[in-house]
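INSTRUCTION: Work out how this chain folds

Fields: amino acid sequence; protein backbone structure tokens

Chain under study, with its fold:
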Amino acid sequence: MKFDGVLFFPVTPFTPEGGVDVELLKEHIGSRLAFGPGGVFPACGTGEFHALSLEEVRTVVTAAVEVVAGKVPVVAGAGGPLGHAIAAARAAEEAGADALLVLPPYLVTGPTEGLVAYIEAVADASSLPVIVYHRGNARFTAASMARLAGNPKVIGFKDGLGDVGLAQEIVTAVRATGREEFALFNGLLTAELTQGAYRGLGIPLYSSAAFAMAPEIAKAYYDAYMSGDEDRRNALLEGFYAPLVRLRDQTPGFGVSLIKAGLRLGGLAVGSVRPPLVDPTDEQLVQLKAILAKGYELAGR
């Protein structure tokens, strides 16, 4: 499976009554396809997988598959309690997804052998290939990733931990298995800020929550990144991404909350985040509006 472009993680819009707004979700995803995402990842972290029921996961993935219509891969989230992860994997397969992003298990921290078994159990639950998410309590070693890379159903690795030494060891170990098509990508929050370093590790792909909020800005960064225009890339980092990260770090969970808030500022009524996440304050919205304005200026909009 080839990913060619920014990896797009859509939000999950909610109605005022609290349900999934399917039509708005389709509009949200469809409006971003023109900016050339390399893949669409519904019902994952930015899509508040942690707060979705199994039926809501099915609804979100079904809508994404319908809108994307085969233009790029659709990779659905599956994770949490093992039973829920397996059920989500099967629901995603029934909905027509192309692959799964396996999020960390719920709360418990097991040994590496247990984590490998968790990934294998989710992979065995459907015919879909899986991408491993290295984050939180799901911390993989180079040896465990080499073992998983030996399974043809495991097609990728997403680093959300930020240990660059370990990431380099994992890249080296996976390469040694001969899996040249294995997808390696940076999944840190606001990954654009660290992607220059990750490219040096041999991890060329990255996920972009900012793409969901402001695809013009995210595409401008991606184009500069791909073309080697370091002046423009650094201008976007300094003028948009770094201030966004400083605002994000003011409140836990803002990696999702700010994206939804930015969409609302842009006129897409995607609703609030679900608990335990919280929405920005009025003062933080003013800051976000100014950051977005600067980003659009730098992107040439």
Observations:
- DSSP finds twelve helices and eight strands in the chain.
- The beta strands are 7-8, 39-40, 75-78, 99-102, 130-134, 154-159, 183-186, 205-208.
